[in-house]
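Input set for joint prediction.
Command: fold jointly, output C-alpha cells.
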Amino acid sequence: MHKRRKNETGWTSAQTLSEALPFIQRYTGSTIVIKFGGNAMGDEVLTQKFAHDVVLLKQFGLRPVIVHGGGPQIGSMLEKLDIKSEFVDGLRVSDMETVGIAEMVLSGAINKSIVQAINQAGGRAVGLSGKDANLITANAKDAKLGFTGTPIATDISVIDVLTAADPGFIPVISPISGGAAGESFNVNADTAAGVLAGALGASRLMLLTDIEGVMDKDKNLLTNLSVEDALGLIKDGTAKGGMIPKLTTATDAVKSGVEAVVILDGRRAHGLLVELFTDQGAGTLIR
Amino acid sequence: MHKRRKNETGWTSAQTLSEALPFIQRYTGSTIVIKFGGNAMGDEVLTQKFAHDVVLLKQFGLRPVIVHGGGPQIGSMLEKLDIKSEFVDGLRVSDMETVGIAEMVLSGAINKSIVQAINQAGGRAVGLSGKDANLITANAKDAKLGFTGTPIATDISVIDVLTAADPGFIPVISPISGGAAGESFNVNADTAAGVLAGALGASRLMLLTDIEGVMDKDKNLLTNLSVEDALGLIKDGTAKGGMIPKLTTATDAVKSGVEAVVILDGRRAHGLLVELFTDQGAGTLIR
Amino acid sequence: MHKRRKNETGWTSAQTLSEALPFIQRYTGSTIVIKFGGNAMGDEVLTQKFAHDVVLLKQFGLRPVIVHGGGPQIGSMLEKLDIKSEFVDGLRVSDMETVGIAEMVLSGAINKSIVQAINQAGGRAVGLSGKDANLITANAKDAKLGFTGTPIATDISVIDVLTAADPGFIPVISPISGGAAGESFNVNADTAAGVLAGALGASRLMLLTDIEGVMDKDKNLLTNLSVEDALGLIKDGTAKGGMIPKLTTATDAVKSGVEAVVILDGRRAHGLLVELFTDQGAGTLIR
Amino acid sequence: MHKRRKNETGWTSAQTLSEALPFIQRYTGSTIVIKFGGNAMGDEVLTQKFAHDVVLLKQFGLRPVIVHGGGPQIGSMLEKLDIKSEFVDGLRVSDMETVGIAEMVLSGAINKSIVQAINQAGGRAVGLSGKDANLITANAKDAKLGFTGTPIATDISVIDVLTAADPGFIPVISPISGGAAGESFNVNADTAAGVLAGALGASRLMLLTDIEGVMDKDKNLLTNLSVEDALGLIKDGTAKGGMIPKLTTATDAVKSGVEAVVILDGRRAHGLLVELFTDQGAGTLIR
Amino acid sequence: MHKRRKNETGWTSAQTLSEALPFIQRYTGSTIVIKFGGNAMGDEVLTQKFAHDVVLLKQFGLRPVIVHGGGPQIGSMLEKLDIKSEFVDGLRVSDMETVGIAEMVLSGAINKSIVQAINQAGGRAVGLSGKDANLITANAKDAKLGFTGTPIATDISVIDVLTAADPGFIPVISPISGGAAGESFNVNADTAAGVLAGALGASRLMLLTDIEGVMDKDKNLLTNLSVEDALGLIKDGTAKGGMIPKLTTATDAVKSGVEAVVILDGRRAHGLLVELFTDQGAGTLIR
Amino acid sequence: MHKRRKNETGWTSAQTLSEALPFIQRYTGSTIVIKFGGNAMGDEVLTQKFAHDVVLLKQFGLRPVIVHGGGPQIGSMLEKLDIKSEFVDGLRVSDMETVGIAEMVLSGAINKSIVQAINQAGGRAVGLSGKDANLITANAKDAKLGFTGTPIATDISVIDVLTAADPGFIPVISPISGGAAGESFNVNADTAAGVLAGALGASRLMLLTDIEGVMDKDKNLLTNLSVEDALGLIKDGTAKGGMIPKLTTATDAVKSGVEAVVILDGRRAHGLLVELFTDQGAGTLIR
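C-alpha cells >
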C-alpha cells in the first residue's frame, strides 16, 4: 500500500506527449531515411541518443531506415596501417586496398556498433551493406578515382521484407556496394541515402551533419528551400564546400519522388524528434 | 527561403518524447480497457482531451477499448419524460420503459458522441453495445430489480476483428446488453468493462472516476494495492459507497487474468498518459 | 429405434428448395442493401420475419447490409418530451435538440432492436450509424432546415472489414451522420441506403415501403421500369408524394453503379425472398 | 413498364425457404460425405437431380464430398469383353484384368459423368480416384480375392486444398485405389466413403441405396438407430444380405468420429434435402 | 564407426549437378506443359523414368503440367469390343460409343497409371480430364467426324489451385472434354496441351513423340526453328503426315504466348532433362 | 534452322541429375547449417565453387545458412597493425582492440566477400553477425581470456523472416556477437554454427575443415560415428588438437536436436553435394 508524493512532472510530460499526436499521425507508415554521420557518429552518448530516437520513430509507427558514413574512422585506420592515398584533382583515389579497409571499417565496425546501439535501446536492427541482396549495385564514378563508386541500380526487396515483418526490423546500411564483376565500391553515404530514399518512396530524407543547416550569406539559417532555391544557392556561390554535394543529393532525391529532404545538425540530441514531431522544426527543409 | 527564430520549446518537447520510450515499449500490442464515465463525460473539453489521448494510445501501438456509462444523463432523460423509478432496498428498479430510455441514452446519444470525438481527433472509432454480435449476454441480477443485468457470457470476436484490421478501429462500448429471450438489460459500466478486460486478456483495466484514487482512512492516496489489500479495505470499512463495487470489479478482473487495474481521476486531463507513460503514475494500481 | 409416419410435407419442401438454386447462384457474393422502414418496423412479428430472411440471405452466400429509418418513433418521442418542431415550406426543421432525440431513437433504440432480432435468428449483426468509422459524412441540406443532412462522403472500410470476416457480420445502419465540425445530421434513410449501395457496388438496393410498389395511373403495379420510365413517372405526375424521393433515390443509385433497385411492400413477410429467389418477383424493379 | 399477374406461388416458396433456415444453419461448414450408387446412378434424370442437390448443399455453405460405386456397369463391361470371373466362397475374384476394367469404368466413365452433371448444374466438380495424391492406399482384403482391396491409409490433403479454395470445388471420388507396390485395388465404395468420412471428420455420411432404409422384421422403416441397435440387427438376423456391410460401414464410421450416418433411398429425388433440411428426415439415421 | 572405400563416382556426379545450376535457375517458377504420348506411354520402364523426371522438375522449382494421349490403347480396346469405326476422308468418326470407350481408356486407365507412376516416384499427382472443373470446353471439330472435339474455352483455376498448394500437386490431364450440352468430346492431346500451355502462360510446351525431332529433307535434325521456318516446312512439303499438326500446334502455342515449344523424342529416357538442364538440348525448339 | 552435332554429354548429365532425386527429396525444406572456414575461405576459386553449391542447395528446396570464421585473416590484420596478443594457458587473450579488429575482418571484409560470391552465383545472400537482431547474445567464456565469448542466448527470428521470404534469402553469419552491456565478443565459428543449428532445428550441421574428416589411429577415415563413438575418440586420445572442439561442437549439436553433423574437407570443391546428394557421402557423419 505505497503512497506517492504529489508532483507535477508527469502531468507536464503527458501534456507534451499529447501535443505530439498530430505530428505523429502525419508520418504513420511513412519511410524515413536517415543519413547518420559526422561528429555525432564518433560520440558514444550522441550515438546512444540517436539510436533511442530511431527506436521511438519505429514505435510511433514510422519506418526508419539508417544509412551511415564513416570517413574519419576510415582515415584513421588507413593511417594506422600506414597506407598513403593518392590524390587526383584534390580527390582521394580509392585503390583496391583502400576500399577493402573502408569496407572493414564501415560494414564491419561502424555498422555493427550502430546496430548494437539500436538493439540496446530496445529496437531490432539489422546491419546491411550495399552488397547484401544486391541492395545497391555501383560502378566507377570516374576511372581516375579507382573504386569510388556511383549507384547504378537498387534492389530494395530485403528492406521491404525486413520492415514488413511484425514487429519490424530497422535496417542499418553501410554504403559499400558491389559492382557487376564482383568488385567493391566506396559510395558516398549521402548519395547512397538519396538513391535508397528515392527507391523506397520515402517521406523524408534526413541528412545529419555538423552544422545547423543551410545558411544564407549572412550566416542565418534558412529553414525552407524549394529545389530552385537550393540550386540557386549553389549557382550563386552561397553554398560552398561539403554543402554543395549535400544540396545536390537533396534536389536529386526530391526529383526522384522523396517528399522532402531535411539537412540538420547531428551534434545536438533529438534533432530528429524536433523536426518530425514539433512545430518548431530543425535545420533546413528542401522540397 | 524562410528563416526561423531560435527558441527551445521544441527541444524540451523532444526530450520528453524521448523519455517516454521505455514506457511505450512496455505496452506495445497490449489491450487497455478504459471505463470512461463520471463528470468527465459531461464535460466537452475533457471528453475531447480523453478522445485525443485514446488516439495517442492507438498511435503508440496499444489497443484501447472504451466502455462508457452514463447514469446522470439517463436520470436527466427519465426526469424530462416524467418517469418515476421505483426503489427496492435503496436500488433503482429498471422496468422495461426505464431500460429502453437507458439504451437510447447510452447506445444512442453518449456512445456516438464519444465515437465522434475520437474520429475528430483522427482515430477510427466504432460504437458497439453489449447486444452487437452478442458481445455481452446478460440476465437479471436480482428479480426485484427488473432489467438490471449481470453478464453471463461474452463473445469478443467483433472486437478482435475490428482491432486486428490495419489500421485498426477503436471499439467504444455501451454496456446495455441482450438477454437470451431478446430482452434488454442495463449492465453496470464498470462491471461490463471488467468482464471484457478479462475476456480480452487486457494488460490494464483503467477505471476513470471522480476522485483521485483509493484513499486510506486519513484521506491519503494509496498508489499500489494487492488484491488482498483491496479486499481488506472493503472488509475494514475504509472503502465506502461507490468505491466498494469498483474495488470488487478490480479484484475480479485481476482474478480473471487482467494484469493490473488502475482507479484514477477522470476529471483531470491526460491522467491515462501520466499513468501509462511516465514513472509518476496516477491514481491507485491494483494487482 | 424410432419409426416414422409417412407423409409428404418434407418432399414438397425439398422440391421448393431445389427450385431456388438458380436464383441463389445468381446472387452469390453480391451485396444487397436493404432499407427497412415503414409499418413493418413497428410490428414485432414482421421484424422477426425480416430478421430471419436477412439471416437466410447471409446463409445463402449474399452480403446483406441493412439501413433503417424510424420517423414515427422519433415523432412519438418528440411528442412525449413535448418538443414542438418548426416547419419551413412544410418541412420539419431539425434543430439541435431534435436531431439529438432522433439520434437516440435511431442509433440507440431502433438500431439495437434490429440487431437483436437478427442475432435471435442466428445471425451476427453489428449496429452502426453514419458516424461510426466515418461511414457517412454529411452537411446541411438546406440552411433553413437546420441539421437535416445530405451525404457528402462515405468511408465503407468498416463494412468491408465486418462483411469480409469469416463467418461475416451483418451491418445494421442508422442514418444519423456526423458533420466535419462534429455536428450530428439527420439523413433520410432512403438516401443513406442509396449512397451506401452505390459505394458498395451493390447488386440490389431494396426499399421496403408501405405500398406494393410503383403504380400506374390506374393503380396497377408496374413491375419493371427503366431509369427513363421512372423519371417520366415523376415528370408526368403519376408518381406523387413520398414516391417521388424514392424514385429519385432509385435512379440516382442506378446511375452510381447499383445494378437494380426494387421498391417493394414491407408489410408482407418474405417479400425479399420472393423477389430474389423466385421467378415471380415482388414490387417494382428499376434498372 | 411490365405488369404482373398476381399469384401466390412465389410466396409459398418463400415461406418454405424461410423454414429451412434453422436446418441449414445446423450444417454450415460441415463436411457431408455422400455415397452415390445403386439404380439412381443408372438413371439420367435422377443423376441430374442428385447433381443439382449437391450444388445446392455447396451453395448453402456445406462441404459435400461424393464417393460413387458402379458394380452393374463394371459387370456389363466385363460381359461385353467376355471376361469370366472366378468365384471363391461366392465372392468374385478381381484378377488384374478385372480390376483394370473396373478402373476404366469407375475412374473413367462414371466418375466423369457425375462430374459433368454437377458442372451442368452450376457447380465446380473435380473427379478423383483413390490413387490421386495418394487419397486412399489399399492392400489386398483377402489373398484369395485378388485385387479386391481394403483401405490401409488415407491422405486427404488434396480434398482439403480443393474444398478450401474460394469458391470451393466439389470432389467426386472413384474408390479404385493404389497399393504400395503400384497395384490397383478395387475398394468397395461404401467402405471408401466410410474411411474418407472418418478422415474428414464428416458431420454426415449419407449412403444412397435402393431401399427406403433399415427395416425391422415387419418391414417397417427404422428411423433412428444407435450403434448398439445396428449391431443388434446384424446379430439377430434382422439385417440380411447387402444391408450387413452397410450397417458395418455405418457403425465403423460413427466409431471413427463421424457424427451420424444415414442410409436412405437414392431412387427418389431430393432425399438428401429432405433428410438435411426438413424435420421429416429420410431413411435411417445411425449415431 | 564405418569406413569407406575411396572412389570418385560421387565427385563426378556432384560436378554435374553443379553445372546444372544456371539451367535450373532459368526455369524457376516456370510452367512446363508436357505432352506425354506415343510408344513411351506403352513402355513401363520409360513411363517410370518419365515420372521420375517430372518429379525432378517439380523438385527443382518448375511447375510441370502433364497432358497425355493414348490412341493405340483406345484402338486396342475398340478391337476387343469388336466396335468398327466409320471413316470419313480417312479420318475416324467418333460416335458416342467410341468417345465413351476413349474416355474410359484415357481418363480412367491411362490417366491413373501415369498418376500412380508419379506418386511412386515421390510426387503428388492429381489426374484430371478436360471435364473436371470445366478445364476445357469443346465442340465438334467437324460435323462429319462426330464427337471429335476442338477446344473453345479453358478454365485453368483448378490447375492454379493445385500447383499453388504447398507443396504443390502435379496435374495429369486426359484430353477428353465436355461440351456445352453435356456431351463428351475426344480432343487431340497435342491440341489440348497447346491450348493449356497458352492459357497457363507456359515457358515451354514439350511434345514427346516417336521421332528425334523435326527433320530437314535430308533427314538431318533441325534444332532451332522460328515460327516462319516451321510454317515454311509445312508449305514446302518437308513436314509430312503427323508432323504437320504438331508443327501447327507449336506455332499456335507460340502465337498465344508460350515462350517456346520443343518437339523431342519420348523413346529415350531423360530427354526432358537434357533439353532443359544441359546446353546440349534435345529435339527441335520452335520459338 | 540450326542443326546439332550428336554427342552424349548431355544424356550422361541428365542421368546423373535423375539419380540425385531421392537424395534431394530427403532434404526438401530442411535447414542445413554450413560452417565455412579454413583454407577454402582464402582461395578465391574454392570460395566461388562453394557459393555456387550453396545456391544449388537453395534451388533444390533446402534452406542453407552459412556461418564463417576467419582466424588467419584476423591474425594477418593484427600483424599489419603491429598489435601483439597476450596469451594465457596457450590461448590468445581478446582485448577490446583485438575483438574490434576481429569484428572488422569477420563482419566487414570476409562476411561481405562471401555474400558477394553467392550473389554472383545467382543467389540472394544477406550478411549478418551475431549482433544483428540479437541473433547471438554472448558473455565472457573465461575472465582471463577477455572478450572471447560463449553464446548464452539466440534469437533466430531474423533468419526465419529472411528464409521464409519468397524467393528466400541465404543468411551468411559472422560469429562476432554482442553482450548484454553492449560489448563485442569473439565467438568461435564452429560453436556459433552449432548453437544456431540447434536453435534452427537443422537437419545437418556441416563443418568444412582442412582435413578429410575424423581419422582413426591408423589415419583411416571414419565415415559414421555415434555420439558415444565421438566422445570415446576424445577420451582415448585418438582425437587431438583442433579436432577435439569440433567433435564437442558436433556432439553438443546432436544433443540439442540437430539430426546429424558432418565434418568434411572444405579444400575439395563440391564436397557438400557429394555428401548430401550422392550415396557416396563425404567426410565423417556423427549422429
